[in-house]
Specification:
- This protein has 7 helices and 5 strands; from the N terminus they run H-H-H-E-E-E-E-H-H-E-H-H.
- By secondary structure, it is α+β, with helices and mostly antiparallel strands.
- It has a domain at 49-157: 2-Layer Sandwich (Nonspecific Lipid-transfer Protein, Chain A).
- Strands 3-2-1-4-5 form a 5-stranded mixed beta sheet.
């Protein structure tokens, strides 16, 4: 006996029993991307020998910025010199990498730091955007993708007191 199943996502939404889940607003911590947060981030970054050495091996030097997708400017800038996170602020330089996410995406990642799958899904849904920098090229290079995932983990850890 053969069975044929015909199903589409539209069937779910047309059935009142399967209404989309209510969107829950996730507040961001007040200190995310603040000067105090940035100091903790720098301390955690430079204390991670694996992260620093992997970027130093690539000779990675850049100005990296973080912020929210719905704001015209990033909230913070860092200079990376041969893997070490140096000065907070761009010193007037344009960021090479301007990484933005929606407030809900940042809040979710602060609660549970992302892996490659979560990052890819956020990028595909525009919850993660690169205002500057090339996500596709970066994520295809394991020597850069790993440090990027670690970077987002450190964003989360920097929000925890005692870090």
């Amino acid at each position: 006996m053969k069975f044929a199943l015909k199903f589409s996502c539209d069937d779910l939404w047309s059935n009142p029993v399967h209404e989309p889940a209510m969107k829950i607003e996730c507040p961001l911590p007040d200190d995310l991307f603040s000067e105090q947060w940035a100091e903790r981030f720098v301390r955690l970054w430079n204390g991670d020998e694996g992260l620093v050495s992997s970027l130093a091996d690539k000779g990675f030097c850049a100005v990296v910025a973080f912020g929210l997708t719905d704001e015209p400017l990033p909230r913070c800038h860092f200079e990376i010199e041969r893997g070490n996170l140096g000065r907070i602020g761009a010193g007037g330089r344009q960021p090479d990498w301007d990484v933005r996410a929606t407030p809900d995406r940042w809040a979710a990642w602060l609660e549970h730091p992302p892996g490659l799958l979560s990052i890819g899904m956020a990028y595909a849904s525009s919850e993660l955007q690169f205002f500057r920098g090339d996500y596709i090229t970066m994520i295809k290079d394991p020597a850069m993708a790993g440090p990027f995932v670690k970077c987002l983990e450190l964003v989360s850890r920097s929000c925890r007191r005692g870090s």
